[in-house]
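Entry 14. Ran structure prediction on the chain below.
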Amino acid sequence: MSAGDLLDRILNHPGSWTEEDYFALGVTAFRIELFTGGLLVSPAPAPPHQDISHRLAAAVLPDARSAGLRARQAVAVRLAENRVVIPDFVVSRGARVTTVVEAADVVLLGEINSRGTGPAGQALREHYFAAAEVEFFLVVEPDPASFESLRLRLLRLEREAYVEHAVAEHGETLTADEPFPLSISTTELLDF
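Output, structure tokens:
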């Protein structure tokens, strides 16, 4: 489907969006997420964002596989009925082939902050992830002006909000035993 056809289909959709409507859009070049009857449409991430995402998935995959888990980039996650998001990466239990990962199977969600995210957008996503009881959330915070440095924050759900579990500043390696043993070098994420 062309971008024009997709836009026309979205703009001319009557009423609220359901999961059935959402999944009928199929695979697109845009990141389209469903939030309680409405769509959030984002352009494809910029190349530095994509490069960091690729390097992050490559860094996490061996640790996830050792723990019997799957690591995926930009896969749909159903947080609740009519709430489907597409985080930058997901580590989960479950089937090898799937169109959507259920929140109950998610072990770790990861997001790379970008200029378009903003503090309000990140806070809203954290709220939705916490409401779905996703226990761990990894936030990658690159320097948006130069992509010359970044910080990693591994957050853990405590009651109904996230608290810092582990942090790595630029030049450091994030290590943690939970949600599975992992080690992520901040400098290797920028090696592109």
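The first helix runs from residue 3 to 11. Will compare against last week's run tomorrow.
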